[in-house]
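agent> Task received from the user: take the single chain below, predict its 3D structure, and emit structure tokens. No templates, no multimer pairing.
agent> Plan: (1) validate residues, (2) run structure prediction, (3) serialize to tokens, (4) report one or two observations.
agent> Step 1 OK, no nonstandard residues flagged.
tool_call: predict_structure(input=
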Amino acid sequence: MGGALRLIGAWDAQLIGIIALSLKVSLTAVFFATLLGMPLGAAIAVERFPGRRAVIVLLNALMGLPPVVVGLVVYLLLSRAGPLGPLGLLFTPGAMVVAQTILILPIIAALSRQAVEDAWTEYEEQLRSLGETRLGAAMTLLWGITFSAQLH
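)
tool_result: status=success, residues=152
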């Protein structure tokens, strides 16, 4: 314990590099998961299609996906014998970004779906009267929800 505190207190260069890499990987994964998850959740919220309930249940179930399972799947995909093996990403920060994105994506998509669905029930008539398509309305609601906290 004392050695760890000494490294932190001395701002050890190697420790700072590790912290920086960890932040870079995590923030990149959050960026990609947000880029994919928010529009996915919004589309599921306003579109009606066969199997929608099953998709919502699956999305909610994937929020509890064990990190070990995701790590194993990413390992199998990126190993030399795997379909993405030739990319040479195994044991790289890129592989960590992929794994973390897979873990974060269902959480962001499910939360976005719920938020947009709640807003959709409130603003559906107004958006339809303005001639907005369902997907256009989903993006409008997503934008409004994202930035509404700043308005209050």
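agent> Step 4: summary for the user.
Helices lie at 2-9, 13-46, 52-62, 67-78, 93-129, 134-148.
agent> Done.
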